[in-house]
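User: Second chain of the day. Same drill as before.
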Amino acid sequence: MKEIDVHQVDAFTDQLFGGNPAGIVTNADILADEEMQKIAREMNLSETAFVLAPSSEEADTRLRFFTPNEEVRFCGHATVGALFQLATLNRFNLGEPGDNHVRVETKAGILPMTVSNRHGRSEITFMAPKLDITPYRLQSADFAEAFGVPAALIETDGTILLDKNLNYVYVPATSLALLGEQAFDFGRIRDQFGEEKIVVFCFFSKETVDATADLHARGLAPNVGVDEDPFTGSMQAGLMYAAQHNGYVYPGKSSIVTEQGHYIGRPGSAQVNWDNRAGCFSVTAGAKAVFSTTMELPS
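Assistant: Same format as last time:
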């Protein structure tokens, strides 16, 4: 029998049952691809992360990410969950308060990350994959009609953007009230946009639930089996870029707080930073352990 260690962690929150739950398998080298997919389907969370030995000497560890339906190149909340769980297991030898720098191999590249010990609490900072932004093929009313939402929801003077690297679409919303009350037709979205394989549609508002936040977002991923994601770490860099591009955030502001998940009962937040020296975005968040167990699989 194969015995694997399985954990569930709520990422982008410090409250139990908040943020976005991720499955974590911390000893996945013994698993075949088909087994990883079956475990992700059994966990039935938006993503499950599998921790493996790196295939490159330039990385310290490797992560693969599976939705219940398929493998994806990168997942922010499962990255936070995995590194938080590895820190909890003391894989990074965190003792005194401070930072531990980790190079994480993913299918989106080798990404530098930091695990910080602050007052006995671990925080994870990851460098987001580089953006490749262009205006999306549909704008304003044309997008609203295809997507099945009121035209009033979409900012008329805004620009809907596509990140070609992750295949994410960013949509500026006119108000938090309209965004919060919107019931999306996920079947329609799959029918209209499935062949394009858009992974995430991010609707965002400059109005927020929490007064300390700068942006509110809703992340929809029905094409990969997740109708609405509680908190989508991998879209945070594109969200900050899209918000600056559309004038929702002051262009010179290098650090913002984003919020997500409130309208599906799992509020979460993150800090998104622009590192001018490195020329990339970073995302910082906490997490909360939910449970750990073992699973036995036939050899």
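The chain is about 20% helix and 40% strand.

User: Great, on to the next one.
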